[in-house]
Amino acid sequence: MRHADALRALAVAAALAAAGAQAQVPAQRSADPAAALMPPAGTVAAAPAPALPGRWTPAQVEQSFLQADANADSQLTRAEAQRLAILPRSFEDLDANKDGILSPGEYQSGAR
């Protein structure tokens, strides 16, 4: 009987330790606001929420375009544009020549 009681106590202690470790992860991440936006490792991220206008560097704008360009053809379809991390205006407003495709130039000028 003592062996079974010791195993139960060990299992309870392990469960509490695991719960405590999980509770500490958000506290550690809260110091870095950007880390709070990152999904846990091994998960699929949902499309990011659009950022606020006027707060992007050219590198951020370029990175947003490259990440959304699923087939790497240097242009964004309407479906790909839904993946943009930075969406300063609607797809129709960004598509200056109204061809149904966003070029890097159209996107960059719309993000300024």
From TrEMBL:
InterPro entries: EF-hand-dom_pair, EF_Hand_1_Ca_BS, EF_hand_dom. Residues 82-112 form the EF-hand domain. This is EF-hand domain-containing protein. The keyword Signal applies. Residues 1-23 form the signal peptide. Keywords: Signal. The keyword Zinc does not apply.
